[in-house]
From TrEMBL:
Family as reported in the entry's similarity comment: Belongs to the SecY/SEC61-alpha family.
Segments passing through the bilayer: 65-94, 114-134, 146-168, 180-201, 213-235, 272-292, 312-332, 368-390
Subcellular location: Cell membrane; Membrane
Role summary: The central subunit of the protein translocation channel SecYEG. Consists of two halves formed by TMs 1-5 and 6-10. These two domains form a lateral gate at the front which open onto the bilayer between TMs 2 and 7, and are clamped together by SecE at the back. The channel is closed by both a pore ring composed of hydrophobic SecY resides and a short helix (helix 2A) on the extracellular side of the membrane which forms a plug. The plug probably moves laterally to allow the channel to open. The ring and the pore may move independently.
Membrane association type: Multi-pass membrane protein
Quaternary data: Component of the Sec protein translocase complex. Heterotrimer consisting of SecY, SecE and SecG subunits. The heterotrimers can form oligomers, although 1 heterotrimer is thought to be able to translocate proteins. Interacts with the ribosome. Interacts with SecDF, and other proteins may be involved. Interacts with SecA.
Highest taxon, organism lineage: Bacteria
Protein name: Protein translocase subunit SecY
Primary location recorded for the protein, binned into one broad class: membrane
Gene designation: secY
Keywords in alphabetical order: Cell membrane, Membrane, Protein transport, Translocation, Transmembrane, Transmembrane helix, Transport
UniProt source species: Paenibacillus yanchengensis
Amino acid sequence: MFKTISNIWKVADLRTRILFTLFVLLVYRIGTFIPVPGVDAEVLKQANEMSQNIFGLLNTFSGGALFQFSIFAIGITPYITSSIIVQLLSMDVIPKFSEWQKEGEVGKKKLAQITRYGTVVLALVQGFATAIGFNRMYTSQMIPNASFVDYLIVAIILTAGTSFLMWLGEQITEKGIGNGISVIIFAAIVSGIPTMIQTIVEDQFIAADNVLWNIGKMVLILLVAIGIVIGVIFIQQGIRKIPVQYAKRVVGRKMYGGQSTHIPMKVNGAGVIPVIFASALISFPMTIAGFWQGAGWANWIMENLNMSKPLGMVLFVLLIIGFTFFYTFVQINPVQMADQMKKNGGYIPGIRPGKPTSSYLTRVLTRLTLTGAVFLALISVLPVFLGAIAGLPDSVQLGGTSLLIVVGVALDTMKQIETQLIKRHYKGFINK
């Protein structure tokens, strides 16, 4: 491994990409500590006393910026929501979007532009609601004697922060290493680990009566976490190879085709995207309800849609499974794959070309996706049970969601580094 790390710094292009990514992440972390102008910094200290069950996940995804009400307070969540909406509308809801999706790289750029516009609109709405909601939640107003113009200024600043984060993510994707948005979320989650460890130590060891019992619980949780990481890697790396045979063709005096290859279908072709999507959607009604605490409907939502409650957990699991199927079949279209194979003279041994091939690919992909979706759902809710059994404080966001995102993004980034090294005849992390 140390030799591989040294090889990374020998490749100028790869070294530049990694340093650029680290620089962008440094800019992002600095931005999380810059408060919104006009906000009373003393009142922000009350954020630590807010219900972690309501805003904990959003604060985790923003790298702690939400509870500090910095310029990145609403994070990259509007971009994720906008992406969900655009992808749903591309499923034959808006014909123009469906047409663009089939145009390849040109169509993807058009949809990406629509996603950016949607991000700005959603960020403005969410920023305005967040400013009003947070100001009403405190005994002392966060924005003293706030008027509509004051709320609008705060909303514009938060929108600018989200737009800047979106731009940073695109720069990482283009000039750095990994998927930019995922890397930013990864950095946000990892930045909260030291605080979480400090909270666990103070609650379970310093202020605890039975320290030995708590040590046993923490060791058990650590072993389970290691097992979860191993399971995530196993599923993320798991593929099924479908054999494909290409018929021989004679063109002029040359013979083409006749070779055998395979189609690699991943057990979890959607990666961690379904978990991010599901987390964003399940937390949205909780966030809105948090701004109207005391109302009957708001109290019901906060009580029942919490992921630690049965209804919230069931909805979270269903959303993960649904988004896994949706995103996988958006990325892999069995009908187009079968048509492409037929045009190139390829076929799966024992399966007729055309519709039988697409039906076969659909069955295989459905079974694989179901396995991956159930696994993602189980991993996402398992740490919730562990936290409840161990009696960890609410401020500790021990969630499988964060663990899945961290491991998944690390694997994807490692694969990109692997590809860059192999291109230049260096051994990577996976190669032996």
